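#random but structural
TW: two for the price of one
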Amino acid sequence: MPGQPAITILLGPPRAGKTTRVLERYRALETADKHARRLLVLVPTALAVEAAEQGLMRAPDAPPVLLDAQILTFADLAKRILRHHEPDATRLTDLGQRLLLEDIVAGLLEAGAIDYYRRVAETPGFVGALADLFREFKQAEITPEGFEAELLARGEPSPKDCATHAIYAAYQRRLKDRHAYDAEGELWRVRDLLGDGKREPFADLRALFLDGFHSFTATQVAILPLLAAGVPEVVCTLPGDPDGRRSDLFHTVRRTIADLRDHFRVTVEPVEPAPGEGEPILVALADHIFDTEEGATARMTPAHARPVNAPATICPSASSRRPGGRAR
């Protein structure tokens, strides 16, 4: 659609050279622009950051400025943007999150607000399970208020759903009161800042590269077009089978491309392995594992399926609780 940023997707099987092309393009732009801070590479993990940095420096003519290359995870990106715009904000560590949830659960048990969980609240793993559940909620852009609004219409909630919502709502309120963010909340806040036009320190990007992903969370998908607005070159590598012979293996990637099409003008550029490279590992394994006779192909579970443990309803009385403001 007009006004949407453009993105080129390099689509090819593993070991086809997609990352190599991204790094070569990075070097070329850096050589022409002489300012690595105008280039940004986003990768999924800290290990991928290290691998990309090593890949850049392996070039025999790698310029010294590549030591200052901006190769970040989404978490790194969020930290830099929040450090610039909200230097007084607090990042909640995993231990801090656990202690906070333990305190919230204890208080709600004492108040009789979550009796459903009374027998299991002190068992090992309960707080960790809550943290995992709330992480899934946030990655799917589900706030306590949105959770309530969506599910109130489904009928009478169960005690489990009432208790789950009470803990989630209290958790979000406590984060707001502390001006603190958990990892997913940092990305929510970055999404809001970018939506308000606060793009520093990434306001003058020349190119944005996304490498090593096969999918994005709902929040990451919302961030990307805001970050890419006005950027002349945006490139994303995705694993896939350009000729469609193995579409059953790349369901998640097809969904990712569809999500990107909702926010970008997408051009898909197939990337085939270079001659002599041999058959890509993933496809080679598939040839031995999967029976591709009609009706016999193994089906993979969609990545966007609803979490098994996600509550199905919400407690109506939650609407009387103090609003949590912006989610964190």
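TW: number two ↓
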Amino acid sequence: MRNEQCNKEECNKEECNKYEEIGYERLEKAINMVGGKWKLRILYFMAWREAIRYNELWRAVGSVTHNMLSRQLKEMEKDGLLVRKEYPQIPPKVEYSLSQKGWDLLPVFEVLCDWIEKYID
């Protein structure tokens, strides 16, 4: 069945129904993994770094509180988007890096960047 809202001249059934086939429940899970005010910003600052220390990320993100940043990082680690590496030294050193799952999200940023270039001044 052709998606009635498809605006492509030649509609490919698989492409048109991709969103429907994924299902709303899986979409909600994905949105929860990257949703909220800070998670996309965190991914943005991590996208061009191999690893980043907590304070460096906190300064880069800006007005986020330590409590909120810590919570977001824990959630993202739990969801498999980030890897947390703790070094046994004094003072403590913790670095965060993107997991493979996190790296696989970067094409979403490419599409978003294209959209920004087209529509945002």
